[in-house]
Amino acid sequence: MFVYLDNSSTTKPYEQVVEIMTKVLREDFGNPSSLHTLGIDSEKYVKAARKSLAKAMGISSDDFYFTSCGTESDNAAIFGACNGSKYKGKKIITTKVEHPAVLEPIRRLEMAGFEVTYLDVDRKCHLNMEQLKSAISKDTALISVMAINNETGTIMPINEIAETKERFNKEHGCQVIFHTDAVQALGKIPLKMNGVDIASVSGHKIHGPKGIGGLYIKKGLSIPAYMIGGGQEHNMRSGTENTAGIAGFGIAADICAEGFETRTAAMKKAKQRLLTGLKSEMKDIYINSPEDDTASPSVLNVSFIGTRGEVLLHTLEQEGIFVSTGSACSSNKKGQSHVLTAMGLSPKVIEGTIRFSFSEFNTEEEMDYTVEKVKETVNKFRRLGSFR
Ligand code: PLP
36-57 b/e with 16+ CB inside 10 Å = b? Predict the structure, then answer.
């Protein structure tokens, strides 16, 4: 059996996405800036996709810009918000559990003199709202908090943060900017951009193509263009548009928005089946993802005590099951998950961790098979004792 449970790393593109991309590459390959019909036809794809993304995010299409990936969007948001004006404050608030696409640019700003507050999280990766409230000051240039954590699936209180920031700005007459990395949230939870100033999204996490991302920037916000040249994307992000990628992203966003309830219900069902199976069949496991309404339907993070995640991953792979030990972006690197470390898990527990991440295509049959194989594998390793 083939069971793909690594959807937070990337998703399989929808058939309709592949079809439209092939058409754009084969036939409608014009440059959207060209004045002839090929150019005009190509521009239509960009316009339509911008509308689709705007609809999926509940924003105006004038406020959406295409980028090359989620990482670019995060970088652009952070550098843009912090370097926008020399009169801005030099403080940043973020969490200890952001994706490296957020943490690394912030670290760079820290080295350049910004003061950064890294908010703590609890055992289920919930951030401390009180700590956030007391950290905001008139000198805060940026708050950057992700909408869903990519390793645990914890839903962060984006609306509450947005309200807090809006109230603070009103009371103190300042302009603290709130950015959210919504890369893992689009298509998984209803997104509300009220009070959010900038948001990052990515095509390949919603069954769209890789190499295409997007950025919502609230109208009126003064963010300097970060890629300058030919003036594409309303002068915000120059460079000839990736029309095939944009068209594919647009179709994926349409499918996401239209079938939202059914798709998320299918993910939830698969996740619940796996969770129930693992809990009833296995001992000495820790569920690191929340199990209440702060849990995304897309991720289940579990530690199997007395095992090594990497070994489990490769053994499961031989049974046709594809999972991850943490985030795909950090699993190549040495060292343990900064997310699970911030949650207070011991190195021994972190070592035995697997992230299962779901799509609407996962079935209950696949989940039963996965429980059986995980149980078999873990028990085998536990019997063997240490296998370093
Ligand atoms: N932010 C989060 C939360 C992610 O999970 C990822 C990718 O895993 C990214 C940003 C980076 O997105 P991309 O792969 O499109 O650069």
Answer: eeeeebbbebbebbbbbbbbbb
